[in-house]
């Protein structure tokens, strides 16, 4: 399993995990769910449920990935597999993201 913290305006809102079978789970933190002033990170990941499951990387996160020649440069420079969307996301979305969401690798994770 690999994991990344999902930050909204520099506050951890939840955790995105890729299971060993390749499926994904996004889970809001308990504190984030309990605070009605904290928004959902996306309309497609509502706070009406704490945990969301998907057989592929959620479109909200997939749309944060570079495309075309930018993706090729990132993968070559960082020695990443072009098909490892979660790996690319964790590598670039910590600092190179547009908007309020950042993706930060969980310490101690491969």
From TrEMBL:
Pfam families: Couple_hipA
InterPro entries, alphabetized: HipA_N1 (IPR017508)
Top-level division of the source organism's lineage: Bacteria
Stretches assigned to the HipA N-terminal subdomain domain: 5-103
Database matches in NCBIfam families: couple_hipA
Name recorded for this polypeptide: HipA N-terminal domain-containing protein
